[in-house]
Amino acid sequence: MSVPRWPKRRTWLFALLAAGRAAAEPASPTVEVWVDLSEPVPADADTSARAAAQRQRVDRQQQEVALELRRLGASEIARVRHTRNAIAVRIPSDRVEALRRIDGVRQVRRVETLHPPELLRPGSSKSEPR
Fold first, then answer.
1. Three-state DSSP class for 113?
2. What is the pTM of this model?
3. Each residue of 21-66: pLDDT tens digit?
């Protein structure tokens, strides 16, 4: 007795139709933006306990916001935490307004340039020189 082939063909047909639909829908172009955050950064020379606690708040805020950025489909490309509190991301242009609504976001602005010390290595969550 032979096994009917219809279920395999139907699965294949649905997969083909889904792939065609995804290819037909235009993807939103991506943009690179800096997401400036609200926690102030203490001076590098300040070694007080208060400054250390503030640096921890900056790190915690960056971790929380980075999670929200990933949920929106953003790819992180850089972080700054010594001179300012900001994360650079690449994101579909139609989601930029959603970035502004994340708790702790002070400003969203286009990336003009990235300097090598700010670039992230793939899989890293900390800025490292390349």
1. coil
2. 0.67
3. 444 455 679 999 999 999 999 988 888 999 999 999 999 999 999 9
In angstroms, the Cα distances linking 58 to 29, 63, 103 are: 30, 9, 14
CA angle 77, 103, 60 (to 5 degrees): 60
- Spell out the domains of the chain, with CATH numbers in brackets: 30-118 (3.30.70.80)
Token match 């294949």: residue?
12
Q: Which residues contact 114 (CB under 8 A, 6 or more apart)?
A: 77, 78, 88
Of 130, 122, 120, 112, the C-alpha closest to 79 is: 120
For residues 45 and 12, give the distance between their C-alpha atoms in angstroms, rounded to a whole number.
63
Query: What's the pLDDT score for residue 28?
Result: 76
The pLDDT score that the predictor gives to residue 128 is 44
